[in-house]
Each structure stands twice: as C-alpha cells, then as structure tokens.
Amino acid sequence: MTAPTHATATFPHRHLLGIEGLTAEQISLILDVADGYVEQNKKPNKKTAILSGLTQVNLFFENSTRTRTSFELAGIRLGADVINMSADGSSVKKGETLIDTAMTLNAMHLDALVVRHNASGAVKLLADKVNCSVINAGDGNHEHPTQALLDALAIRRRLGRLEGLVVAICGDILHSRVARSNIHLLNAMGAHVRVVAPPTLLPSQIDRLGCEVHHTMKSGLKDADVVMMLRLQNERMSGQYVPSTREYFYFYGLDYEKLEVAKPHAVIMHPGPMNRGVEIDSEVADDLKRSMILDQVELGVAVRMAVLDLLTRGRRGNAE
Ligand code: ASP
Predict the structure, then answer these.
(1) Residues 78-88: pLDDT tens digits?
(2) 26-30, 62-66, 134-138, 248-252: the lowest-pLDDT one
(3) Which of 67, 89, 111, 145 is most buried per CB count within 10 Å?
(4) What is the pLDDT of residue 234?
C-alpha cells in the first residue's frame, strides 16, 4: 500500500524542528497527506509498509502521554521499527551529554529520531550532529510543531479553512511552545491570531510575532471562531505568576459565560494535559458539540504519520 495522497510530492526539509520558516504550501502539503492518513486510521487494517525496514527512535527527556504514544503509533502504522527511550532509563542519568547520546544513536543508523527536551534549542543542536531526520516533539518553551499541525488539521476539517479565521490562544503564553508554533502556523495560513493572558504570562514583544494582545477574555474571545486554551506550565515557572488558581479561573478560565461573546459556532481546543477548573471548566471541555479536544488526539496520529512519511521520502525514494 502507498501513502494515500500526494504519494510522490517531495518535502524540501530533512528535519521538522519548528513551524517558523515553513511556507503555507509546505504546511498544506503536510495537512493534505495527513487527511489521507485520517481515513486510513479508521480502517480495521491501519498498517502500511511504507517505512518498512526503517528505524525510528523516540527520545523523550520530558514526560509525555499523547505525543509519545502518538509518534509510536504513527511509526508502527507506517511499518517502521520503533524504539522508545526515556532519559530515565538511558545513560543521560549517568551524565552522558546530549551530543554524546545523539552520536551514539547515530552510529546505529537510525532513519528518524523524535526528540522532546526541556531546553529550547536542544533538538536543533542534536539535529546538526546526526544523519537521520529529526522531529521536534517539543523543546522547552520554543516550538512543538506537530501539535500546531494537528491543531490546524482539526480546525480545517471542522471549519473548512484556516484563512480569515479569528483564533484566540488563551492562558500561559509565556511558557508555551504550543502557542509559539500555533502563532507561526496560523499567521502563515492567513488566520487572525489573538493571545489572551494576564501581562505576567505574556512574553515581552509578543506582538512582534504577529498577533493581537488582549488581557481580558471578553475582548479576546469577541467573535472568535476558535478558542484554544493552554495549561499553566507550573514546571517551567520560577516564582508566582498568578495570585491563585481560583482567581485565575475566575478571570481566565473558560466557561460558558465567557464563551458567549465568541461566534456561535466557535470550537474549543486544548493540547492537553488539561487542568480542569483551572484553565477550563469541565462542562465546556466535555461538550462534544464544541470541544475538539479528542479530535486533536485522534488527528495527532495522522499528522505524525504524514510528517514521518514526508521526511523520509528522500531516503526511501518515491518509488513505493
Ligand atoms: N502537551 C503540550 C506540550 O508538551 C502542552 C502542555 O504540556 O501543556 O507542550
């Protein structure tokens, strides 16, 4: 079996380190290929052999539920041999540097290396040292490109387009790689991006990334088509950024009352993990008509299949 659509299209990059720098055409190509995999993933037989014989290693230096499982499933469904490594069970605990770990893995002739690391820029550093394709599965507060791609796919499938939509990204923008990747992607695709957060949770000069800045949910959500909620990333905070989670929910937590000013068809998104009652009310999160949170998880597998497929085409040739 071959990739469902765009089977011979080529992607001009060896790695996927971020969304910044990708063109609208390149983003659309990934989404189009992913659309094909969404359909394939609904079939009883979800497997193809297009990555047969190729080796994929998932190297996670930070915790993950969705992303790691999703990359693992993606590789398996494409027929690759997939190995999971976490920092806990590796020689990183014995003091091995990131570069030494990369060089060691490189010597084993990998084809794809999926990396999550708590330091911004670490994945790029590693990509410069290895021969295989490297995919950034989240580096510090820098980028999380496959999250933004799956978010875009979810929006495109539900609302039919990205161009011209008003997307409000709300919450802890300061520490969020998801926000950064989404801002780059949505701008490239012609959406209008707003960020909504208290000043303490916004990076300085955020407007330079090309988004409108709002400090209240009332103005930020007005006529929005998409409301994307983010978690308070306590693990990246040094010190107190909000007075209390209760007060934070009162001003910035998404509930039906705050949602009233958005467009009637507005959809709700969250990359997970969710903190119910902190950034989002449970009823809203579980509202099957408006919440796309589980669609995001489903589409994540298809997007990662598309990325693995496109990045390895060079080494596989386009002949399958
Ligand atoms: N899962 C996302 C990430 O890894 C969002 C989050 O952790 O809040 O960045």
Answers:
(1) 999 999 988 77
(2) 62-66
(3) 145
(4) 85
Which phi and psi angles does 10 have, rounded to 5°? -110, 150
Give φ, ψ of 26 to 5 degrees. -65, -40
Residue to substitute in 63, 147, 174, 304 for testing ligand 1 pocket (most ligand atoms within 8 angstroms of CB): 147
Classify residue 257 by burial, with Cβ atoms within 10 Å: 0-12, 13-18, 19+: exposed
User: Any idea what the Cα angle at residue 49 is, between residues 58 and 43, rounded to 5°?
Assistant: 95
Cβ-Cβ contacts under 8 Å for 240 (sequence gap 6 or more): none
User: Alpha carbon of 23 to those of 29, 39, 78: distances in Å?
Assistant: 10, 25, 26
Give the residue from 31, 273, 37 showing the smallest Cα distance to 155.
Answer: 31
CA distances from 1 to 37, 44, 48, 81, 238 (A): 12, 14, 6, 17, 50
pTM exceeds 0.85 for this model: yes
Write out the H or E segment, with its range, that includes residue 6: none
* Residue of 66, 176, 182, 228 with the most ligand 1 atoms within 8 Å of its CB, for mutation: 176
